Task: structure prediction
Amino acid sequence: QVQLVESGGGLVQTGDSLRLSCAASGRTFSNNYMGWFRQAPGKMREFVATISGNSGITKYADSVKGRFTISRDNTKNTVYLQMSSPKPEDTAVYYCVARAAITAPPTTTSREYSYWGQGTQVTVAS
Result:
C-alpha cells in the first residue's frame, strides 16, 4: 500500500521559515514527479510546486516563486518544501502528491497526481 505522510506543519509567524516533509512508502518514486498542493478554507485546491525524479526540473506557482523551494532525497523517498518568508495568505492545508507514471513535462493539474497525502496544516500569523 502506497502512503505519503506529511510532517512539519504548524503555526509560524510572518517572516519565519518552515520546512514540510513528505515520506513515501510502499513504492519508490525516484523516477516520478512529486509535489505539493494546498487548500485554504473556502478556496479551491491549488498547485504549489513540483519536482522531477532527478531534481533537474522544478516548477512553482507564481504566488510562491522565490519564497518556497522544493527538493527531494530519493535515498529517503522523501520530498520537502522549504517555506521562507511565509505570508498569512499561505495559510492552508498542504498536501504531498506523486505521479504514478514516469512522464514529462511537469504538470500543475491535480488529476495528474495519483497519490496524495493526508495533508498538514500550516498557519501563518501576521
